[in-house]
Write a structure and sequence with these properties.
Distance between the termini of chain B: 68 Å
Order of helices and strands of chain B: HEEHHEEHHEEH
Helix content of chain B: 10-25%
Strand order of the largest sheet of chain A: 10-2-12-11
Order of helices and strands of chain A: HHHHHEEHEEHEEHEEEHHEHEE
Number of helices of chain B: 6
Strand content of chain B: 5-15%
Number of strands of chain B: 6
Radius of gyration of chain A: 29 Å
Number of helices of chain A: 11
Largest sheet of chain B: 2 strands, antiparallel
Number of strands of chain A: 12
Helix content of chain A: 25-40%
Largest sheet of chain A: 4 strands, mixed
Strand order of the largest sheet of chain B: 1-2
Structural class of chain A: alpha+beta
Number of domains of chain A: 2
Strand content of chain A: 5-15%
Oligomer: heterodimer
CATH architecture of the largest domain in chain A: 2-Layer Sandwich
Structural class of chain B: alpha+beta
CATH class of the largest domain in chain A: Alpha Beta
Largest interface: A-B, 93 and 74 residues
Shape of chain A: elongated
Amino acid sequence: MRDADQPQSSGASPQGPRAANLTRRAFITKGAAAVAGASAVAAAVAPLATIDREDIPSIGEFLQKHYKEMTAEDKEQVFARIRLEVEKRHGVKVTLTDPPALNGVEYVYGLNISRCIGCRRCVHACVKENNLSRSPELQYIRVLEMKKGSIDVESADHYYDPATVPDPDKYYMPVQCHQCAKPPCVKVCPVEATWQEPDGITVIDYDWCIGCRYCAAACPYWARRFNFTDPQVPDGEINPDMTYLSNRPRQKGVMEKCTFCLQRTRVGRMPACLEVCPTGSRKFGNVLDPDSEVAYILRHKRVYVLKEDVGTIPRFFYYFDERGSRYHDPIGAEDTGGDA
Amino acid sequence: MLRSLWIAVVLLVFAVVLMLAPLRFTSPVPPAVEVPDWATATTPVRQPKMRPQYEAGVFTYRCSECHAIIPPREQAYRTPLQHKEILSEHGINTHCLNCHHPSNRDAFVDDVGGEIPWDQPQLLCSKCHGPVYRDWQHGSHGRTDGFWDESQGPRLRRKCIECHDPHHPPFPALRPAPGPRTLRMGPPDHTSAHSAHNPLRLERYGDTGTDSRSLDEEQ
């Protein structure tokens, strides 16, 4: 290009070598290129004009420290900011707290696999309690329907939709975060946005998460959920009882997971999935208390963990009763129906 | 010269394409599913009266009010005139007086002919269902509502008959709540060949385009 321009510009201009370089042709082509480039850039950045202001982090959020490095005053400031943000976005007054892990408490979950009927109420109670996105749908609990006589999770089905459950030929295995004692998801996090609390719950600081999704890849139970889009929760369905580490509203681009309903369990209440279970298949408590329900189950029941071979040491135990699953078979000769 | 023209033209085409946006972004997000209220209701499946009460039309009686004048029928499967709504489908246990007290109808009967109060049905059930009663006592069977930490609030153990109908004890079949339609799992689609692309299912049956479920069943 320069070679082509050179001979023409050599003797033409009296104003000096710089102006001499600019011929009419060069001006028009370069000008056109510049205009085109500028318009291309403008078009490319055009979506920024319509960006949702909520997608831009506030200065407070941008300068926020890691949860573990925050002092009590820092936390108060951050919580006040989040309360304001949620109120502005959803028009709901919320109580955002941060209950600490209780001393001498380690949570354990038990699930009676011979009693679960696969009604999925736990799934929806969890969504409601934890302010999970309704669209796109995020759910912490997955209820797997499996053929009797097999424990092959890969051939399990979670779309089943018969008129009534249970299907007599199937059994059901709900899967959620197992709150592992050796959590692979924590190990892979490059920014330490997720960690294990003293009571055994693995939590996420949503403001620290960079959304790399390594943890989701590392989890052998597929217990972590990623917000690929802005989570949508109807204003009227916000659960205002929130904690920083569990069910406060999440933003686009961060990971989230089951925390055994930290906001409930750290003040002594049962998780939402347990409270809604019509069959009483779900059991929760402090395993360090020898009189707790879960301690009894671990001592006296046939207990197993999912994917024991991956060495994650889950705190979520499946157990079953001694006598077959559900009392559906006829007990005596007189009851020949067995239709129940 | 020619090169800068090309650059200009390409950039202009990009700009035009971006401004016109002929490939509209269509969100893969399925619309939110309406979740009915019963799917998150925490009420037990049965709400039995914990009182010996019988309702006939607008009248409410204590069981003993009628049974004081009606003589007990020993070995009765069912009285022919009253309690027709009660189906006795409790396995081999079809005799009313196995559970109901022969002389005091406001109570249940224990193993030695004593009375079990109406609001303590678990003591009656434990006559036969020993292991289940043991598990219920320790909390591994049955519903526990309220607080896991009793120092912070009350714990409520649901009684047997709040889940099981004593005259037809199997746990009732329930309607399942709506299934998943999450981004990764997509809308349920059992029948089409696309279910072979379900990321949760390894393609170990080969890409035959057949429904992987039917292959599962053949296996």
